[in-house]
Amino acid sequence: MIIDIHGHYTTEPAPLHQFRDKQLAALADPGRKPSSTDLGISDEQLVQSVQPQLKFQTERGSDLTIFSPRASGMGHHVGNEAVNQVWSRVSNDLIHRICTLLPDNFAPVGQLPQFPGAPIEGVLPELERLQQLGFVGVNLNPDPSGGYWKSPPLTDRYWYPVYEKLVEYEMPAMIHVTGSCNPAVHFTGAHYINGDTTAFMQLLQGNLFKDFPGLRFVIPHGGGAVPFHWGRYRGIAQDMKKPLLREHLLKNVFFDTCVYHLPGIELMAKVIPVDNILFASEMVGAVKGIDPETGHYYDDTKRYVDQLKTLSDADRYKIFEGNARRVYPRLDRMLARRGKPGRKAA
Amino acid sequence: MIIDIHGHYTTEPAPLHQFRDKQLAALADPGRKPSSTDLGISDEQLVQSVQPQLKFQTERGSDLTIFSPRASGMGHHVGNEAVNQVWSRVSNDLIHRICTLLPDNFAPVGQLPQFPGAPIEGVLPELERLQQLGFVGVNLNPDPSGGYWKSPPLTDRYWYPVYEKLVEYEMPAMIHVTGSCNPAVHFTGAHYINGDTTAFMQLLQGNLFKDFPGLRFVIPHGGGAVPFHWGRYRGIAQDMKKPLLREHLLKNVFFDTCVYHLPGIELMAKVIPVDNILFASEMVGAVKGIDPETGHYYDDTKRYVDQLKTLSDADRYKIFEGNARRVYPRLDRMLARRGKPGRKAA
What we know:
2 copies of one chain form a homodimer. Chain A has 346 residues and is an alpha/beta fold. Chain A is built from 14 helices and 10 strands. In chain A, helix 5 runs parallel beside helix 6 and helix 13 (313-327) packs across helix 14 (329-337). The longest helix of chain A is centred in the first third of the chain and has 21 residues, at 81-101. The mean pLDDT of chain A is 97.
């Protein structure tokens, strides 16, 4: 099977946006607070809302999408701690319902109610709830200030309470920023990619996985700038007297294939070990158009992986399925329970 | 000849650092202000200080380095407007002296006395002085706040007074951040690369070169994440109804080859037109070691370009010399005056 590990719910029904409007309007005028967290969205509406994703799955040949709320919609820098708690719960509940309605097509990943400057312990109740609901991972935002980078680096003990739970629950975290409120930093064109690059460098500087050998991070968008500058990162690690990156980071850090042209995916396959590459497209996401140079959607990343000539059949299995089952063990067990075990590791 | 367009003076003699210590100490204790901007550094000391660069030029086969003050040393977020004026002047004067002493090896690029939040007009006197001294370009910092991105994007009219002068003087700007004072953002491993990516995206969003068709920007470090995500940027531009990137940006925006492994340079040569690639190594710079996988210095980027099999002789000339002469017209004229004209354009 083909598992796409990075899809966001970017086709939400209007009532979710109406709820969010009321919720944020209430910051200025408390009288506008939504009267209920019941959005009145029917199961039929939910199934209808993800038809674009189902269509792309069929057309492009993927089976299952690991599905989480819209990344830019997390808006950790908007609202306040209490608002973010409610917003995360409402957003995650929709994901949970979709994945329950369409279990062969979607597996759930949740957002966390982070807030800039707030103690990270505030996210733990929602994280526990996600674990109980069967979510297979979470998105963790390294910059809840939305483009100003006001949080301590991911290696700081500030984050440790979350890591302890992620390890206990066997849930990996995709390191994914939300929207940018910084006018100098465009969200999908700069902040997302910078977030990936910055997170990787934070991990390189530290020694986090000595404290958490069971912790797993997925760095999306192909790892930001990292594979393109792989020599730079190997060289900086060497100057810093760190172990080789393979030892230092690659047992715990993985990259997805959300890179929207063949030369980028070719580069990635050359420098990043195949065990660390997970297939993903981020559809329906940051780039929606058709590439006039190929006649295909930019984000139809399966085509790029299919064109890699150097991959063996075993390599392809790892990128499309095996690595996802290893990095997301709860997903693997869920699929096995449904009669879809993975190949035995060679 | 082989022109390396990106070298910083990272081997400064001790008296420069002592001056800087006194200058910054004086922020807390005015009594510690340096008594003079005469550092007492002899010509012999200056020539001695750049022996590492000369040795690398000889060993690696480059001829001329476009040379500017240490990027992380610009420290625009440190000090204040008055301090930064003096610091830029002192730093630029050393570059000027080195380039005068060793004109066959170095051509001068200057730093600007930017300060976060200060009117950009404050840099104009130093810019005029640089022009009079024969500098061929400047480094322009898109984030003088040092990792917090508090300035308006490069397309904002805030920056226009500098652009008017750069066009008038025929000086290109390398868009180069300085050090980071943000503990989440490492300087050479995240801030530099993010700076490149962010600047490119700012330019993509705007329409700056319609107002300044003669303005030229060099985005260093291979353009940050941009070539690796070239499909993403083409797709985002398309979604934004911008012209093709070639039309929209590539008449004015150029990338250097400071990418420290062969696969990165190969990718760059695949997606970025050869007219937009300028040879550079940033030596002696961000990565100082020898790559155990090749036995050569990571930043010996000439080796990577030499290994590109797809380049014609004319392409190689462009990357190593021709593009530099075109983007830095003052350099071209300076070389021509010294009896070293470039090849006539075909």
